[in-house]
Amino acid sequence: MVGAEAARLSLTNLNMQTTCGALLSELEQIWTDIGEDEVEKDKMMLELEMECLQLYQRKVDEARNTRSFLRQSLLTKEAEMAALMGSLGEHNLQFQTDRSLGSLRRQVAFISQMVEDLRLKKDERAKKISEIKSEIEKIIGEINGCNLQINNGKVENDDFSIRMLNDYQAQLRSLQKEKSKRVHKVLESVNEVHSLCSVLGNDFVKTLNEVHPSLHEPGLGQSTNISDSTLEGLSQMIQKLKTEKRKRIQTVSQVLESLTELWNLLDSPEEERKIFENISCIFGSREEDVTNSGVLSIDTVKEIEAEVGRLTKLKASKMKELVLKKRLELEEVCRQAHIEPDMSTASDKLCALIDSALVDPSELLANIESQIIKAREESYIRKDIIDRVSKWEAACAEERWLEEYNQDENRYSAGKGAHLNLKHAEKARVTAVKIPAIIDNLMSKTIAWEDERNMHFLYDGVRLISLLEEYKLARQQKEDEKKRFRDQKKLQHLLLTEKEALYGSKSSPKRSNSLRKPNGCHAYGNGNGFMTPGPRRISIGSATPELLTPRSYSGRQNGYFKEMRRLSTAPLNFVALPKEDTISSFASISCFEPGSPPRG
Question: What is the extent of the structural domain holding 76?
Answer without folding.
Answer: 37-152
